[in-house]
User: Fold this.
Amino acid sequence: MVIKETSIAMESEYEMPVVAPLQQGSWYQFVFIGDYSSRMYEVRMYDWDEKMVVYQKKMWGDVDGNIISFSYIPKFSEFHMFKPMQQNKQKKKEVCGYVMLLKKVK
Assistant:
């Protein structure tokens, strides 16, 4: 089931926060697709206490380099913040990004 899905206009080297309530014990899949012309892609995920619980980084040239995808099962029911970021040397503003948050339904 799709929880959140949006296309976002990002600025190079700036995080774009996305906040969502997650339920304890549920399985989630987060997907970030960055602009193909960017050189570096990162996603940091924080729990409500601002503790970083996930960090992933990919570089241009990696297999599926502009796509970061990971699954997560929260230990507590609380809001979590996802912070995707990408670095683009050609364009500083209006860098395209796409975010999806999926939840496994039993």
